[in-house]
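hiii, so i know i said id send this last week but things got crazy w the move. better late than never?? heres the sequnce for the chain we talked about at the cafe, plus the structure i predicted for it. fair warning i was half asleep when i ran it
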Amino acid sequence: MTDLGQLRTEVEAAYRRLDLPSWPDPHPDRSPRDEEYSRVTHPGRYGIVHARARVWADRLSELPGVRVEPQAPSPPDGDGLVGRFDRGVRVTSPRPGTLPLLLLERDVPVDGAGASLAVLYVSVVRPEVTVDVQPDCGCDACDSGSEDLLRAIDDAIGRVVGGPFVALQGNGWHARWSPDRGGSGGTPWAPDHAWLMELCRRLAAGEDVRVPEETEAFVGRSWLDGP
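okay and structure toks below
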């Protein structure tokens, strides 16, 4: 029997064996200097986000029936940053009602000298149905340390794998829900946040409810045996 807590512990142990860079939060008081907002001092160290995702993919591949399939790079003329990636994997579980997990890597150029910032997209079903993007901003001002970065990745993947998880993709807006958190955003005419969270909760509970027009609803169950 495998539960989410055990998975996270095993991922952390395997990741530590890689002996990759780590750094503290440079702004524990959240008071960055103005010049830090336009500066990326150490882009290379953000490669840890790709490494963490690969460790997750390796560990998930050991679950019964789970498949990890490489994904071809997205077209270079993709629609905006979200949905574009250089490499990645699609992870699927044979359990009924589970959603495909996409761990997509992008190398974003940050200067004219060839340096790039590693960005990880955690998505479900399709690249544009994003659960999280890390780092959400790679500038020095927004840097909150490596531990915070890795925890965010673990949380995003855990929300999908641990289930239940609901993603709504509307016309210019989106909503994401799991039992311990939820979020929505997009255009000013998006439905009310509290209403969307209640809709997601009811979808996760298996209730027969209607979603707004031109909205896709993706409802995922747990991949795991444990609680």
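btw DSSP finds four helices and nine strands in the chain. thought thatd interest u
miss u guys!!
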